[in-house]
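Customer escalation, tier 2.

The customer says the design service returned an amino acid string that "doesn't look like it belongs to this structure." They asked us to rerun it and document both sides in this ticket. The original structure tokens are below, unchanged.
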């Protein structure tokens, strides 16, 4: 019997609503497979916790999470707490605290009716974005000088270490080799004349060790256009933190919206727990109404199962999501349905239980 300990950090807004459905799915799998068991512990961290304690998580939060096999996170941010505080003091703290330097964000069209792009089918939009997750523009380096004065200057520095850049690019080449797919690097070396020139050089250097992997390099502006006009160009993409964050929202837009976008924050060395989350935020405008789409959160359960080595269950979860979307019977309003968050979760469980 394999026992997996999962820390639940549902967070803010619709986070708790969608995480509840992902937990339902894991509990259903546990019932169907007597070789698997999941143990959950819930952490009440987020903006409400901040209002009470002036911090988003406990001081020893990272220490408390260390003993888990995975972290399942909902969403972060709510009006009343500045967004940069809620993001940095919880989500980014966990990513950095556990050296989760790989962010895996699949861009996969499950049904061609979901894409706003004309004449694109499921086989045209099916790629993986590998985003550097710990440094770059999200390194937290910068300064705010002469605040409020006419000389005011604000600096936000992108940090690209050799270690950080090499390891994400190497991870992407390994993945491309394993999957026998092409690898596209997305940067902006014509304008960002230090960081992105360095990124391109490292991509070229590391690439010499992988002559079997076909490569492409695009500037991020051209790549954004190709995401929308010719997504079939991409198989595996590697890019920096900020570009990856923005590009994967385009990825969500071309595959059915934020309600379907999943992300895994991975520590490949497995020294620490990895974290699985829907890419969407806390959506305060619909929080508490029971209409949030739980599919992104359920898809992140599939990524978690794959990370645990349960690839078959991971595929079952993704294929069941596809069936539900294809049937169009039980969907939330963002996908044109009339059902609630928990009705979609219940239907999912009913389907995998057969
Ligand atoms: N589901 C996690 C969440 O609330 N994400 C909001 C967000 O802004 N994330 C930024 C990032 O992924 O770097």
């Amino acid at each position: 019997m394999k026992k997996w300990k999962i820390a639940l950090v549902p967070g803010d807004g619709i986070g708790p609503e969608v995480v509840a459905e992902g937990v339902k799915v894991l509990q259903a799998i546990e019932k169907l497979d007597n070789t698997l068991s999941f143990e959950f512990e819930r952490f009440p961290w987020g903006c409400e916790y901040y209002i009470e304690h002036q911090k988003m998580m406990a001081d020893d939060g990272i220490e408390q999470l260390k003993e888990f096999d995975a972290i399942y996170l909902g969403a972060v941010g709510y009006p009343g707490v500045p967004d940069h505080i809620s993001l940095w003091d919880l989500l980014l703290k966990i990513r950095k605290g556990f050296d989760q330097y790989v962010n895996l964000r699949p861009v996969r069209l499950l049904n061609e009716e979901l894409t706003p792009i004309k004449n694109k089918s499921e086989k045209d939009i099916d790629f993986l974005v590998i985003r550097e997750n710990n440094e770059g523009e999200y390194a937290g380096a910068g300064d705010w000088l002469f605040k409020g004065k006419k000389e005011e200057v604000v600096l936000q520095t992108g940090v690209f270490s050799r270690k950080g850049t090499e390891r994400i690019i190497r991870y992407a080449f390994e993945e491309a080799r394993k999957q026998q797919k092409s690898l596209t690097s997305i940067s902006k070396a014509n304008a960002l004349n230090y960081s992105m020139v360095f990124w391109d050089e490292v991509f070229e250097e590391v690439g010499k060790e992988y002559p079997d992997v076909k490569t492409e390099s695009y500037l991020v502006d051209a790549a954004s256009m190709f995401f929308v006009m010719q997504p079939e160009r991409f198989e595996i993409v590697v890019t920096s933190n900020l570009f990856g964050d923005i590009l994967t929202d385009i990825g969500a837009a071309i595959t059915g919206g934020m309600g379907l976008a999943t992300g895994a924050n991975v520590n490949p060395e497995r020294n620490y727990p990895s974290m699985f989350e829907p890419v969407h935020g806390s959506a305060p405008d619909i929080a508490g109404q029971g209409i949030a789409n739980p599919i992104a959160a359920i898809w992140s359960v599939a990524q978690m199962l794959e990370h645990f080595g349960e690839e078959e269950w991971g595929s079952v979860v993704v294929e069941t999501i596809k069936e539900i979307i294809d049937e169009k019977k039980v969907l939330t309003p963002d996908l044109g349905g009339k059902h609630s968050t928990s009705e979609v979760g219940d239907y999912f469980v009913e389907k995998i239980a057969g």
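Tier 2 assessment: The sequence is consistent with the input. The mean pLDDT is 98. The two ends are 23 Å apart (CA to CA). Sent an explanation to the customer and offered a walkthrough call.
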